[in-house]
């Protein structure tokens, strides 16, 4: 079994940069999956969130500077936690033409396959420092979906700060109901997505649904769940998943 996990900034960040405890929880759960011989690829946001506290000045390139400072902090935090579980990690940073150029995408997929065959956990992020308007992937939900499709993963698990997709915005309406299963992603489903997004991430629920549309269209079941929930990754592989499941198209 092969899975791609996408982690949003809110899942691993605190009020001021990254939250070590949250990263520790995530890596511990990944270690359980690896012990079960599941191949895991991690797409992690958090570079900008990790770096911003070190960029107190105003500058038009503030987020790029934050990403330049934050990406090594992010990967170092993963490295430290991974070591506790004897996991080797490797970092890959990419731009949109690595996905759109056929040869480069093939090369990218082969590199990931090579790492997986040696039990190395690939940790992928967009190359935020080098991206330009022409070269941006958009958001990491989209990136996760493209990787999951390219790797023919069994599942794409998107961890965020919501429990999943709701009938209306749960932050504003207490009658909002969680939708447990979506078999067709159409305009009605897209209308349910609140336009809210966090300050540090790029996505929001609509980009998760769009990523799910892409991945499920390529045969990859997609799950959206709350990264704060205990054992969420383990539950995502069993019958007790508490988020939204988007079923794969054949
Ligand atoms: N690549 C950005 C970061 O690491 C986040 C992108 C996203 O939220 O989709 O901070």
General description of the model:
The model has no long low-confidence stretch (mean pLDDT 93). By secondary structure, this protein is an alpha/beta fold. Helix 2 packs across helix 4 (62-84) and helix 7 (140-150) runs parallel beside helix 9. It is built from ten helices and eight strands. The longest helix has 23 residues, at 62-84. Glutamic acid binds at residues 9, 45-49, 125-126, 128, 139-140, 201-203. Residues 9, 45-49, 125-126, 128, 139-140, 201-203 line the site of glutamic acid (GLU).
Number of strands: 8
Largest sheet: 8 strands, mixed
**Which CATH C-level class is it?**
Alpha Beta
CATH topology label: Carbamate kinase
Main structural class: alpha/beta
Assign the CATH superfamily: Acetylglutamate kinase-like
Number of helices: 10
List low-confidence stretches.
none
Question: Tags for this entry?
Answer:
250 residues, alpha/beta, Carbamate kinase, eight-stranded mixed beta sheet, globular, binds glutamic acid
Tell me briefly what this model is:
Helices cover 41% and strands 17% of the residues.
Question: Secondary-structure map with pairings?
Answer:
Layout lengths: L1 E6 L1 H4 L7 H16 L3 E6 L2 H5 L10 H23 L3 E7 L1 H5 L1 H16 L2 E7 L13 H11 L4 E6 L20 E2 L4 H5 L13 H13 L3 E6 L5 H5 L7 E3 L4
Parallel strand pairs: 1-2, 1-5, 2-4, 3-4, 5-7, 6-8
Antiparallel strand pairs: 7-8
This protein binds glutamic acid.
């Amino acid at each position: 079994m092969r899975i791609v996990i996408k982690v949003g900034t809110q899942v691993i960040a605190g009020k001021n940069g990254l939250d070590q405890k949250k990263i520790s929880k995530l890596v511990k759960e990944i270690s359980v999956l690896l012990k079960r011989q599941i191949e895991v690829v991690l797409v992690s946001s958090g570079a900008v969130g990790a770096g911003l506290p070190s960029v107190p000045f105003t500058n038009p390139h503030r987020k790029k500077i934050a990403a330049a400072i934050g990406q090594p902090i992010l990967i170092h935090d993963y490295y430290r936690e991974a070591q506790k579980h004897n996991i080797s990690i490797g970092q890959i940073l990419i731009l949109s033409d690595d996905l759109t150029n056929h040869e480069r995408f093939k090369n990218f997929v082969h590199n990931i396959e090579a790492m997986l065959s040696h039990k190395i956990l690939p940790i992928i992020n967009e190359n935020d420092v080098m991206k330009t308007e022409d070269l941006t992937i958009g958001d990491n939900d989209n990136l996760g979906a493209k990787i999951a499709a390219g790797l023919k993963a069994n599942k794409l698990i998107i961890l965020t700060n919501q429990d999943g997709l709701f009938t209306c915005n749960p932050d504003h309406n207490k009658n909002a109901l969680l939708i447990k299963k979506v078999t067709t992603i159409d305009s009605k489903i897209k209308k349910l997505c609140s336009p809210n997004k966090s300050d540090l991430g790029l996505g929001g629920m609509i980009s998760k649904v769009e990523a799910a549309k892409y991945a499920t269209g390529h045969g990859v079941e997609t799950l959206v769940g709350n990264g704060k929930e205990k054992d969420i990754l383990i539950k995502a592989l069993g019958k007790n998943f508490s988020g939204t499941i988007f079923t794969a198209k054949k």
